[in-house]
Amino acid sequence: MHLLATQLWATQRLRNRPSDGARRVLGLLGALYAPGYLFERYVRQHLRRDGFDPVETPIVIASIGLAAAMAVLGHQERSGR
Question: Which helix (H) or strand (E) covers residue 3, if one does?
Answer without folding.
Answer: helix 2-16
